[in-house]
Structures are given as structure tokens and as C-alpha cells.
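Our consortium's second objective concerns turning raw sequence data into structural hypotheses that experimental partners can test. To show how far this objective has progressed, the report includes one record in full. It was chosen at random from the queue rather than selected for favorable results. The single chain below, 257 residues long, was entered without modification.
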Amino acid sequence: MSLLRKAFYAVALPAVLVALWWLLSRDTDSFWVPRPGELVTVFREVWIGDRLVDDVLPSLVRLAVGLAGAIVLGIGLGLAIGSSRVLRRLTEPVLEFFRAIPPPVLVPVLMVLIGVNDTMKVAVIVFGCTWPILLNTIEGVRAVDEVLSDTAKVYGIQGPSRISMLTLPAASPAFITGIRQALSIGLILMVISEMFASSSGLGFTIIQFQRSFAVPEMWSGIALLGLIGVLMAAIFSLVERRVLRWYHGLKEVEHSE
């Protein structure tokens, strides 16, 4: 697909939606829905300046730390649990129990246990993002090709060598899928944790705008969250294509047969 065609597919629908928004809002004076031009002006005034350093960057740092912790925890536990049938049977009820708990309800509990600080916000993100990575990793390890597994056993590949040469690459498409799911969950939990208890951050700023009826400013914060989500997805797609280059090549060969 040519670069021009990719750019067209990327901007066509957003352009149509913005045009529709402009048509529907041009003859109204609604206090609750700003016009596109007004939102762009407010966005530039609010977020390009001190707030970028005081609110946006701290939120992104918490999100990055939380996601990194969830990735390490999810893949590490997933490899251990997925490789052991006994461990899977022992942990399955506990995993189902904790997975069913919505992470936002833990915010008051963590506030009491950890305190109102950045550690609490990161802990909420780690808790919510670990599950999709962990469960996908377990399934990925369980689905390792038996022929490859037997071949590794015949050649005496065991322990760390087996994990690095067989298990981890074979399970990588599954846990990469889990990480993709965790990105949006992490963004949501970042905002929720900052809305509950914080003096800075995107969630805190958006809720302050809402309480002071600064509606265009509030919408600009929501638009910024959407842009961050799009940027995260684009960066992750680049990383995924590089890490799973062998997997996508294999799929292309299979589809061409």
C-alpha cells in the first residue's frame, strides 16, 4: 500500500467527522459543545505551555512506569504459570477472582494502604494492566507447538535456554496482543486514579475544568487523551512489526499458499 493511500485512510474518516461537527455546530450557541475552531484555539492555549510540563508529563511518566511494571509482572508470571500444569491448576481460581475485581474500586483501598501519592496511581495501573498480559502469556505458553517442544527436549535445551529460544518467541504473539489491550486500560486507569486523589495530571485537570464549568477546556483535555491514545497505538504498531517480523512473515507465506 502506498504512503499516500495510507495517509488517506488515516485522515479520511476523522476529516469527515470534523466537517460534520462543524456543520452541526455552526448555527448554535450551545454552552456545552464548542465549535471545532474554538476547541483548537483553547487546546493550544491550555496544553501548549506550562500544563504540558506540570500535568501532561507527570501523567505520561506514571502511565509508562505502570505499563512497564505490568509487562514485566504479566510476562514473568505468565511464563511460570503457563509452563507448569500444577501451577495453572493452583492459581486458576485466584486469578479468576482477582481478574473479576474492577481496578477503579481499589483506588480507595490503595489510598489507605499506600497513601495519596504517585505509587498509588502506578499501583492501580499495574493491577489493571497485568491481567490481559498475564492471561494471554499463559495461553501463548500453553499453545507452544508440540513438535518444537519435543525437538527442544531431544536436543537437551532446558531451563533459561528453553525459555529464551522456544517459549518466549512462541508466546510473543499472544503477550503482544495482551500488551496492546493493556495500553487502553492503562490510559483509562491513569485518568481515573488522578480524578480520585491528585493535585496534578490530566485526570485532575479535566475534573477541575468540569467543576468550574470551563467546558471548552474540559473538551480539550478529552481530545488530548484521544490523541495520546492514537500516538500510543501508532508507536506500539511500529514496535510490534519489528518484534514480530518473523511471525508476520510466516503468516504471509501461509496465506500465499
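The partners drew two points from this record. The two ends are 21 Å apart (CA to CA). The mean pLDDT is 89. Both points have been shared with the crystallography group to help prioritize constructs.
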